[in-house]
Design a protein that fits this description.
binds zinc ion; alpha/beta; single chain; binds 5'-O-[(R)-(carboxyoxy)(hydroxy)phosphoryl]adenosine
Amino acid sequence: MIRRLMILGIETSCDETSVALLEADGAVRVNLISSQIERHQPFGGVVPEIASREHLQHLFPLVTLALQNASVEWASIGRIAVTAGPGLIGALLVGVSGAQGLSYGLGIPLVPVNHLEGHIFSPYLRPSGPATPIPSRFLSLVISGGHSSVYDVRPGSVEMLNRTRDDAIGETFDKVAKFMGLPYPGGPQIERAAAGGGEGSKRFAFSLPQFNDRSADFSYSGVKAAAIRMARQHAISVSGDQQDLADFCLAFQTALIDQLFDRLDGIWDGLSAPLPQEVAVAGGVAANGAVRARLAAWGKERNVIVRLPEKVFCTDNAAMIAFAALQKPAAAVDPQRVTARSRFR
Ligand code: KG4
Ligand code: ZN
């Protein structure tokens, strides 16, 4: 019997150091995530220099711990997958250099992975057991701190259908939260505050950005500017009236989500048959309860299967990086040829 080797994943593109071990069928044996959020919080955002130092400190202890927790020997590992970009260059370099060292030293093939492909396939990972089978065509909505895009995914091809012309959706959550004095990362904070919002949210009217060329691209900088203007005008802040804060957060969150669905509708209606079988949403903002509920309703209305990632696979993690590498069985390259790139495509 041929022993099917495992894959080791390494992710260091931003503010999470993560190491995972997956079976060849996508079953996650371990997915360790060391978050640096507390180290960056005093600065209201990620400080690249601090991120790199933290990755350097945590990467190898996490690799050792992952092997120990799974009771796995190096001899059982057939490939190493590492995020090669996009991301913070200094942060990426720690993961890539570490993976190159392991690949060289232990003679294990190395697979460079596009972080976005990690997010794209993440809805198919399960908390235990083999991954959910990936359909022959699906639409992927990646909504994170650095990206907002819809992709058309087919075997061996990932086509970007739109992108943001300015800020990413998560970045917009974070910047407006910061303006109101909420801690980083702002998305979950705004979601929590919005839960207490009600009728009063109607006072805050946001408009939906549209382009003259009827492009399906996202644009969040207008929403950000309008939110900051309104927050200033109505003195909305953590230290102000809590009901005002809740109402404002609900209106702002709804404006961000309305735009997501406006674009998704436009893209879906423009697709030609055979239509994708599923829509999968991924990235940190996919952890948002309102996004998840709207997407589930959207799928029901249109009779499309909707895949929502487990919350642990929404934000950056190494399991999704190893899983993306599993989608490309022949992708290992000479470790000397792997380079970190802050922009990937
Ligand atoms: O995917 P991710 O970990 O990092 C990037 O690759 O960008 O996403 C982080 C982003 C942050 O902007 C954070 O505010 C947002 O995801 N986020 C959320 C929620 N949880 C994380 N946004 C809205 N609601 C949430 N519950
Ligand atoms: Zn990410």
